[in-house]
Write a structure and sequence with these properties.
Elements lengths: L1 H11 L2 H19 L4 H13 L4 H26 L8 H12 L3 H34 L4 H17 L5 H16 L1 E2 L6 E2 L13 H21 L17 H22 L5 H16 L12 H16 L1 H6 L6 H12 L6 H6 L1 H22 L3 H9 L2 H20 L2 H19 L5 H23 L4 H6 L1 H33 L6
Antiparallel strand pairs: 1-2
Length: about 500
């Protein structure tokens, strides 16, 4: 264990890896600060940068962008009441009231500390459980992997709390897009519609940048300039009182534990972790009326939770090759583009990548803590800069990045198409996250199903009868049935409420 940790730090602390780790957390924070973008959009936009780097360096860069974006999203939440990331929406509830009370500096300082604590707990969990899960994954066969991937897709649709029907539609659409290209088994072209550019499939970069880059920019243009920063943030104003620090210790511990656990579950992620951590603090608090009015616990708990979840989200992605979120799907795609197959063998066959990445998490979180406290003034100035100048540059960089991948104008056109699709999905209440999950997992799902059916000689019941495979498939079915039951129950209740005559209870 200790030999692996030392190997990881030796890998992460090379000059090149340290530099790209710094660049990653800085760019991630910068883009996370901009309202409406966040870590997912940041990774999508900067993904082409990683393809010209060594695999370990590329992953360190992308991971830094990811958790840097999670931290940056909280800054706009506190100062403007505009969440930079979905998970930062919880921080708005008490962070912005603190800012209105003249305590924006304290809220930002607590955010930095909580993010570091949560990230550290997540790294410890990743070190402790990652290799064990990978070792367990070595005993899995194709049928087990098919069942696990199916469970990941079902969880992404059902656990998130959105519309089940809309989630299923998005997953199916992602699976269909993933089938385009060359059939691995027969070598024939599928769903290319005569476009030779689609013979290698739809570009992951084009989809990600369109759905999460262009769409987010377009949707946030109107909203970004509606609020102005009036609070002054100085180094002196950032110092919390003893009471503040005493009140944050417990919430940080509880939030880190909740985030560390939920982050490793497919479909849960940072958003649910942040909300659950906040709800837990309300439940255990003696004075519940303080929440929503500037309670420092309401900042510490969700921030530690979402950063812990951001780290442990790598556990299923790296060890068994199943991403639990859209961001992890893009990370998984980046690994595969570099010719590395994620899964149990990653830990044994590529120890420098696995342990080097984990060690970089410590370094990256330390960078965030040391740098962002004195850089708060810079991020305030970024938020004051006119967005009408920033967003066109972002769109131009997206198009340049996509074109540079395969020097294909066709891919640029795909970005525009998926950008328009992503914007329409947002306006109609559809989440693009299940789509990207279906797109990344689709080919692997198909491949493992084919292999499993070949091994079972076409008898599907042999798969179901296996104890492990059958249990996982049963869990997927139970989650789906429970979600359908909950949806039907909500519809019945809403109709009953509508049928009550006015004035009656």
């Amino acid at each position: 264990m200790w030999e692996n940790i030392l190997l990881g730090f030796a890998t992460a602390m090379t000059v090149e890896n340290l530099m790209y780790c710094f660049i990653g957390v800085f760019l991630g924070t910068f883009i996370g600060v901009l309202p409406g973008l966040g870590s997912l959009a940041a990774i999508s936009m900067l993904l082409p940068m990683s393809f010209y780097l060594e695999p370990t360096t590329a992953l360190i860069l992308l991971a830094g962008i990811y958790y840097g974006g999670e931290y940056g999203g909280s800054i706009a939440s506190i100062l403007l009441n505009l969440p930079g990331t979905p998970s930062a929406a919880v921080t708005c509830l008490d962070g912005n009231p603190m800012a209105k009370q003249g305590r924006a500096g304290v809220a930002l300082f607590v955010t930095a500390i909580a993010s570091f604590v949560g990230g550290s707990v997540g790294v410890v969990a990743l070190m402790g459980f990652g290799p064990s899960i990978a070792q367990l994954g070595l005993s899995f066969g194709p049928a087990d992997y098919f069942a696990l991937m199916l469970l990941g897709l079902v969880a992404a649709v059902t656990v998130g709390g959105g519309s089940l029907v809309k989630g299923l539609i998005m997953v199916v659409l992602g699976l269909l897009l993933g089938t385009a290209g060359t059939d691995v088994t027969s070598g024939e072209f599928r769903y290319t519609f005569g476009f030779l550019e689609l013979r290698d499939g739809v570009s992951l970069v084009a989809i990600a940048m369109g759905l999460f880059g262009i769409a987010e920019v377009v949707s946030s243009v109107r909203e970004a300039g509606t609020r102005k920063i009036t609070e002054k943030v100085t180094m002196r104003s950032m110092m919390p009182t003893r009471t503040d620090m005493r009140r944050t210790v417990g919430p940080m511990a509880r939030g880190s534990s909740i985030g560390g656990f939920l982050g490793a579950l497919p479909g849960a992620g940072t958003v649910i972790a942040a909300f659950l951590a906040y709800a837990t603090e309300i439940r255990v608090a003696k004075d519940k009326t303080r929440f929503g009015k500037g309670a420092v616990e309401g900042v510490a708990a969700p921030e530690s939770a979402n950063n812990a979840a951001a780290q442990t989200a790598f556990i299923p992605t790296l060890t068994i090759g199943i991403p639990g979120s859209a961001t992890m799907s893009i990370m998984l795609g980046a690994l595969m583009i570099h010719g590395i197959t994620p899964g149990p063998l990653l830990v044994t066959d590529h120890p420098t990548i696995f342990w080097g990445l984990i060690a970089s998490f410590w370094i990256g979180n330390l960078f965030l803590l040391v740098l962002n406290i004195p850089l708060i003034g810079l991020w305030v100035k970024v938020l004051q800069f006119p967005y009408k100048y920033i967003y066109p540059v972002v769109i131009a960089l997206i198009c340049i990045g996509v074109f540079s991948m395969r020097t294909s104008v066709f891919d640029v056109g795909l970005v525009v198409i998926f950008g328009g699709l992503g914007y329409l999905l947002q306006r109609t209440g559809y989440s693009a996250a299940p789509l990207i999950l279906g797109f990344v997992l689709g080919p692997m799902l198909e491949e493992n199903l084919r292999r499993a059916m070949l091994m079972a000689r076409g008898d599907a019941m042999r798969m179901v009868s296996d104890p492990v495979t059958g249990s996982i498939l049963g869990l997927s079915a139970a989650m789906l049935i429970w979600a359908i039951y909950g949806g039907v129950r909500n519809v019945i209740r809403s109709r009953q409420v509508k049928d009550i005559p006015p004035g009656e209870t």
